[in-house]
Amino acid sequence: MDTASPWPPDQAFWAGTFPDHTTGRNTPFLFKGIIPATAAGPDDVLAGFEAIRGAHAAGTGIKAHARVYVGEERRDDLLPQALTAPSWDGGVDAFVPWMQDLAAAERFSLVINNLETVSPALAAGLGTFLKSVIDGWGLPLGGAEQVAFAGNYSGTAFGIHEGYEDAFLVHLGPNAKNFYCWPAEQYEKLTGGKQPTYGDYRALLEEAEHFLLEPGDALFLPRRVFHVGTQDTFSVSVAMPLYTYPYAQILQSRIIPDVLAELAGDGPDDPLNEPSAMADVAAGPGSVTDRLVGVGRELLHIAADRVRGAAREHAEQRWATLLSNGGWELVEGDLARQEAADAFDPQQVAPGAEITLIAPYQVTILNTGDDTQHVLLRGHQTGIALDVAALDQDTVTALNDGAAITLPDSPELLAAVRALGATGGLHLTPRPADTEDTEK
């Protein structure tokens, strides 16, 4: 399929085409044929669902999860059957009757969250698109997620609902999907509020902006836009919400508590840990209030001076972590990460072996200011502590550019590679057997 822009979209697209067509990134727009079939397809989504079924059979706890809907009703009673029934034999054509038989219904929908953690193909393929988003538009501080919608449903199970994040809806086909959007102000005038609309909303569809999604299309959905999808035949779409958490939420949940914890006093000899005085009953709680206010103001004054350092440390850690994970949000229970780590054999790390990064993950480095550095790969929290000399910048750059590195006889580098293998971000090709035989 010919694409409407280069693949992946270049700087000119993000600096000009994208904001021009979306009124400064504020209105929906359908970019036709922007995602090549080689980057993502319906079978990749079904493979991710099969991975979830395999994890369920093995009793492995994972973050990715599926939901089954018949009409607008969430059918959790059908999920155990969807996870345990014998697999369909074939691709999309076999999957549809398999789900119809399981649901005992003609129409159904399957929703999968955190698909990127169970589908290496989609993590890499749509990760190429996400990297272009980051390079051309910016980094969402909460990362991005993949949410798949597969089915032949007459309407999205959530009804007409509001999106709270900027997102791209990538349509994979094989058939088309109708999509309808309303600005928040218009929707409120039409319905009298912001609540989702379920049931028969055909009259509202006549007032909406309509998009026909075909395979390879990507619809930009700005935050706070109400929307719904409808279709007559089976198709698959993958939403990519960009999580941009409020700064106040990051401060409240991650930074300020750490700052205040450092100011809470260290041991009984710290002045801040001086026990409260016996409260004068006659004076009442007023004196206690005054003392709490005084100490609180003192603590907050000191904390304000320390927020910059704590914020910088948090921002650098978050930045490096997200970039190392290809921009995908970091979650526990990443099945594909664990499987890649398990497949890495540190005993095969030897001179002559070859390493490459698993797409779309990157190596990022947090310098500690001494002779060690924290190397992050695939979102590995805090990073792997390595000597500065163990992994030079030229090697990091080559790996991030997609190069295959043949390992030299360097004990420091070999040790670093063995440690990084635990992140699940490295692919190792052992040195050829004939090379080993020749050396012997």
Discrete helix count: 13
Beta content: 15-25%
Helical content stands at 25-40%
Could you say which structural class the secondary elements and strand pairing correspond to?
A: alpha+beta
- Report the end-to-end length measured between terminal Cα atoms: 51 Å
Q: Any idea what the shape is? A: globular
Rg to the nearest angstrom?
26 Å
Largest sheet: 8 strands, antiparallel
Strand order of the largest sheet: 1-10-7-12-5-4-2-3
Q: Please provide the count of β strands.
A: 18
Mean pLDDT across all amino acids: 93
Q: Which spans have pLDDT < 50 for at least 5 consecutive residues? A: none
Structural key phrases:
18 strands, 440 residues, eight-stranded antiparallel sheet, alpha+beta, four-stranded antiparallel sheet, 13 helices
